[in-house]
Amino acid sequence: MRNKPLQVILFALLAIVFFLWLFVPFAMALLWSLVDPDKPWSYPDLFPQKLSFRRWGDMWLTTSLPAAIGNSYLLAPVVAFLTLLLAAPTAYAFGRIPFRGKAVAQMLSLLPLVLPSFIIALFFTSLLYKLGIYNKFAGIVLGHVVLFLPYAIRILTVSFSQVRQDLIDAARDLGASPWARFSAAYLPVLRPGILAALIIVFIQSIEEFAIAFVLGSPDFTTVPTILYSYLGYNFVRPNAAVVSLVLVVPNVILMLVFERLLKSEGAAVSGGKG
């Protein structure tokens, strides 16, 4: 009871931060996206004079937004799958195999997070051209995989380290095949990590701008490249609000689904199925 006033204060501060950091920007973006083109929203109006979905229709019909959405949601699953596939062996070594220099190797695997994404984009552009690879989709996929490998490696390393050795030994002693041992001992523990890595890399790929811009422009557009064009020299706030909502809302839905899946997987593992 002594700490109850402190808890109330902390909860109130958290609510204020949540309101200012999440609700207000989202509400402003929604209002700006609904401003009617014939009735601009300007001072001293507190709210737009007229709301309509004309801006959404104009953006869909007169810009490359549909193609950009298709490109973004084609890139993201390919990048997520390849990143997970390439990260798994390294994560297994970091999580299950003791070897000299492991700490140094783990630190080196995080280097793509240190380098600015524009530096990686310029490097890949030069490298791909020297190799004679001019396919923009393949170049962006390769750049995204390298850029987001550290996330998948880190998440899967933790998952691999939590697999119980006694379950692996018991399955081996019972004569289980390698796939049966993996299904019984590894998969139940790895599944939440796999889901987390897939969703995080998926969302990061959709939101990435530098590599998609340097390697893809002007022919291959994604949602972030269109958004930054409206935030740059050709600043149009209502159009930028529409594109930002197109970019943010699906990701929020994915994160909610991801959270729900993680809770169900965690319950399954803690319930003894792992």
From TrEMBL:
Keyword Membrane among UniProt keywords: yes
Domain ABC transmembrane type-1: 69-258
SUPFAM superfamilies: MetI-like
GO cellular component assignments: plasma membrane
One Pfam family per UniProt: BPD_transp_1
PROSITE patterns per the UniProt record, alphabetical: ABC_TM1
InterPro entries on file: MetI-like (IPR000515), MetI-like_sf (IPR035906)
Any one biological process term the GO annotation gives: transmembrane transport
Membrane protein topology class: Multi-pass membrane protein
Name of protein: Putative spermidine/putrescine transport system permease protein
Location(s) in or outside the cell: Cell inner membrane; Cell membrane
Top-rank taxon: Bacteria
Leader sequence residues: none
Similarity annotation: Belongs to the binding-protein-dependent transport system permease family.
TM spans (from-to): 9-35, 73-95, 107-131, 137-156, 235-258
Keywords, in A-Z order: Cell inner membrane, Cell membrane, Membrane, Transmembrane, Transmembrane helix, Transport
